[in-house]
Amino acid sequence: MTAVNLLELDREALAAFCEQLGEKPFRATQLFRWIHQRGASDFDDMTDLAKSLRQKLAGRACIAPMGVVSEQASADGTIKWLFDVGGGNAVETVFIPEDDRGTLCVSSQAGCAVGCRFCSTGHQGFSRNLSTGEIIAQLWFAEHQLRKRFNSPEGQRVGLTDDKRVITNVVMMGMGEPLQNYSALVPALRMMLDDHGYGLSRRRVTVSTSGVVPMIERLRDDCPVALAVSLHAPNDALRNDLVPLNRKYPLHELLAACRSYLAAAPRDFITFEYCMLDGVNDTDACAHELLALVAPHGVVHGREGVSGISCKFNLIPFNPFPASGLKRSPNERVMAFARILQDGGVVTTVRKTRGDDIDAACGQLAGEVQDRTRAHERMTRAPVQVHRIGSPAARAIEAGRAPESVAPHESEA
Ligand code: SAH
Ligand code: SF4
C-alpha cells in the first residue's frame, strides 16, 4: 500500500481519511494543525496524538514536501526557490517581503498551455498540472522555512518571532494557468483560507488568470478569493495575438464573467494586469480604448453597455527575454499611459519590479519543463529559450536525470 501524502488533503479530505482509520473528526483537525500551522513532517513530533494513532499513521501516511533544487536570494530580500516536481520538471516559487506584508507567488502547473507571447513560461509549453499537495507544499515549505530562519538569533534581533506569520498574502502568479488546473487549485485555496491551516483572508489570496471564463464562474461559486485578470490588450484583435486564449473566450465574455464574479468577490473590484510592451499595447490610443472598455457605458465590438466594471489597473513593466522579440515600454510611456487611465477615473498602479537580479520577476519564472506540447514548434515568431539556473540539480534535470534533493543552504546562490 502506498502511503498517502497528507499535504494532498484539505481538512474535509483529511477527516475522511481519519474516519477510514477509525478516528474521530477532531483528530483530523489536530493533525491538520500540526502539519500546516506547525510545519511538522514527522508523526513522532505530534505529541498530543495518541501513540496508537501515530503508529497507524506511520504505516499509511506521510508528509512529503517537494525537493528543493535551488534557492536564490535577491539583494532586495526576494527569495526564489526551484522545486523538483519529478519527470525532469521543476517549478518556481517566489517570496517577496515588504514592510507590511510577505507575499508568496505560487505556481500551479509545470509550464503553461496558454502560450502568451510575452511570457517565458508560456514559451516553454505545458508539461503537467501540479497536484493540490504540490501547490500547498510551496506555501508549507516557504512559511515554515522562513519562520525557522526568522526565529534564529539573527531573526529575533530584527524583531521576528516564531508565532508571527511570515506569509500574509498568496498570489497564484507563478508558473501556469491556475484556472486550467481547477480541481487541484480549489482544495489548495481552501487550505490557505482554513483557520486551522494558514488562516489567510480571502482578500489576501489572489488567483490570477488569463481568462478561463467558465472557471471564473465556478470559482465565484466554489471558493471566491481576490481575482486578477491578465488583460494586456484593449481589443480582441490585439488580445488574440498576445493571449491566444482570447480566441476562445473573447473580451465581452471575459468582462461579463468578471462582473458576475464581483457579486461574490471578497473585494469590490477586479485587478486588471497589463504588461507594457513597447509599441505594441502601450499607446495613448490603447489607454483610451481601455477606458472605453471598462467605463460604465463602454462599447465592446458594437455591444453597447456590456462592459462597465469596478476595477483597478496594475501596469507591469515587461520583463524581456530574447525569444519573445518584444521590448519593455520606456518609463515615461508607462507613466503617460497610467495618467490617462487615472484621469479617466480608474485607479492605476505601476508594479515595482522585484528580484530582478535573480530573474524572480513576473514572467521570468521559467523553471525547468519538459515540453510535452512542443510549444516551440507552435511559436513561429521566435525561437524558444529556456532559462536555466545552472545548479547541479538543474543540470541533472537538463540531462534527463532525476535530481538529488538538496537542502536550501547547500544550493548555489
Ligand atoms: N497564468 C496566470 C498567472 C501566471 S502569470 C495569468 O496569466 O494571469 C502572472 C502574471 O505575470 C500575469 O499577469 C502575466 O501576464 C504576467 N507576465 C507574464 N510574462 C510576463 C513578462 N515577461 N513580463 C511581465 N509580466 C509578465
Ligand atoms: Fe500561461 Fe499566464 Fe504565462 Fe499566459 S502569462 S503563458 S497564461 S503563465
Total helical segments: 14
Assembly level: single chain
Strand order of the largest sheet: 3-4-5-6-9-10-11-12-15-16
Uncertain spans: 298-306, 380-413
CATH topology of the largest domain: TIM Barrel
Shape descriptor reads globular
Q: Note the gap between the termini.
A: 39 Å
Number of strands: 16
Element order, helices and strands? EHHHEEEEEEHEHHEHEHEHHEHEEEHEHH
CATH superfamily of the largest domain: Aldolase class I
**Proportion of residues in helical segments:** 25-40%
Can you give the mean pLDDT?
A: 86
User: Bound small molecules, which ones?
Assistant: S-adenosyl-L-homocysteine, iron/sulfur cluster
Strand % is 15-25%
What structural class do the secondary elements suggest? alpha/beta
What profile does the largest beta sheet have? 10 strands, mixed
Architecture blueprint of SSEs:
Blueprint: E1 4-5, H1 11-20, H2 25-37, H3 51-60, E2 61-62, E3 67-73, E4 79-86, E5 89-98, E6 101-105, E7 109-111, H4 120-124, E8 126-129, H5 132-150, H6 153-157, E9 169-172, H7 182-193, E10 205-209, H8 213-222, E11 226-230, H9 236-242, H10 251-262, E12 270-276, H11 284-294, E13 299-300, E14 303-304, E15 311-317, H12 331-343, E16 347-350, H13 375-378, H14 392-398
Helix pairs in contact: 1-2, 5-7, 8-10, 11-12
The chain binds S-adenosyl-L-homocysteine and iron/sulfur cluster.
Overview of the molecule:
There is one protein chain. The chain is an alpha/beta fold and 413 residues long. Helices cover 33% and strands 19% of the residues. It has helices at 11-20, 25-37, 51-60, 120-124, 132-150, 153-157, 182-193, 213-222, 236-242, 251-262, 284-294, 331-343, 375-378, 392-398, and strands spanning 4-5, 61-62, 67-73, 79-86, 89-98, 101-105, 109-111, 126-129, 169-172, 205-209, 226-230, 270-276, 299-300, 303-304, 311-317, 347-350. The strands form four sheets. It has a ten-stranded mixed β-sheet with strand order 3-4-5-6-9-10-11-12-15-16, sandwiched between helices. Helix 12 (331-343) links the parallel strand 15 and strand 16. The protein starts with a strand and ends in a 15-residue tail after the last helix. Mean pLDDT is 86; it is low at 298-306 and 380-413. Bound molecules: S-adenosyl-L-homocysteine and iron/sulfur cluster. Residues 118-119, 173, 177, 208-210, 230, 273, 275, 316, 318-319, 362-363 line the site of S-adenosyl-L-homocysteine.
